[in-house]
Amino acid sequence: MEVTIGIGLDNVVFGMTQDDVKTLLGEPNKITDQELDFAIIYYYNEKMLKTKSCMS
């Protein structure tokens, strides 16, 4: 995967919605929420990737 500073990681662009990420990468292996950060984290084990998005 290629990181583009300020843009994203390959086809994952900073600012994408959770639905956009799921459409692009598929269902995550694990989903957690961090109440202190008001965030939802998706874990993709095979890609060694985790994404974090703010809760609305």
Shape, principal axes of CA atoms? globular
- Spatially, the strands of the biggest sheet line up as 1-2-3
Mean pLDDT across residues = 87
Which secondary-structure class do the elements indicate? mainly beta
Instruction: Please give the domain count.
Output: 1
Which short descriptors sum up this protein?
three-stranded antiparallel β-sheet, 1 helix, 6 strands
How would you characterize this protein structure?
The chain is built from 1 helix and 6 strands; from the N terminus they run E-E-E-H-E-E-E. The strands form 2 sheets. A 3-stranded antiparallel β-sheet has the order 1-2-3, with no helix packed on it. Strands 4-5-6 form a 3-stranded antiparallel β-sheet, with no helix packed on it. It is mainly beta. The protein is globular.
What's the short story on this structure?
Helix content is 14%, strand content 41%.
What are the SSEs and their pairings?
Blueprint: E1 3-4, E2 8-9, E3 12-13, H1 18-25, E4 30-34, E5 39-44, E6 49-54
Antiparallel strand pairs: 1-2, 2-3, 4-5, 5-6
